[in-house]
Design a protein that fits this description.
Elements: E1 4-8, E2 14-22, E3 26-34, E4 39-44, E5 52-59, E6 66-75, H1 84-89, E7 92-100, E8 103-108, E9 114-116, E10 122-133
Parallel strand pairs: 1-10
Antiparallel strand pairs: 2-5, 2-7, 3-4, 3-6, 6-10, 7-8, 9-10
Length: about 130
């Protein structure tokens, strides 16, 4: 699976993530920090929008060679069935990383990162952002 890269400095800057999901469906977002020795859930959305407010991950100096994996699960049960394909096609998810060399950097969910159930009611997206120190 493809991944994005976010470059850090070897310093004590706080590195954070924010997620904004644009969907009429019910969305659940989970953010994981994956290192060679552990997988830690950093944050889970709580209100059905899938949005995650700016959330600290850790200090930049501790995040070299860390993978941030973000998953979205969207249920379109409250959306008219004839709109399900349009919801998939027009889904916009933005992931904003902060604390790196270039400051805030926003990534989006690409078509190849999205999936859809056979009946089109459920949508998934998985984004991977690799953190490394320059």
């Amino acid at each position: 699976m493809a991944r994005e890269n976010y470059i850090l400095s070897n310093n004590s800057n706080d590195v954070s993530i924010e997620v904004n999901v644009s969907t009429p469906g019910i969305a659940i977002t989970k953010v994981f920090k994956i290192t060679p020795v552990e997988i830690e859930e950093i944050k889970r959305s709580e209100d059905g929008t899938g949005d995650i407010e700016p959330t600290d991950i850790d200090k930049a100096s501790t995040l070299n060679n860390t993978l941030i994996k973000i998953t979205e699960d969207i249920d379109l049960k409250n959306v008219a069935q004839d709109l399900w394909q349009s919801c998939f096609d027009n889904l916009v998810i933005q992931y904003t990383m902060r604390g790196g060399i270039n400051g805030a950097e926003t990534f989006t969910c690409k078509n190849e990162e999205k999936s859809q159930s056979n009946n089109k009611r459920f949508i998934g997206c998985e984004k991977r952002i690799f953190l490394s120190i320059a």
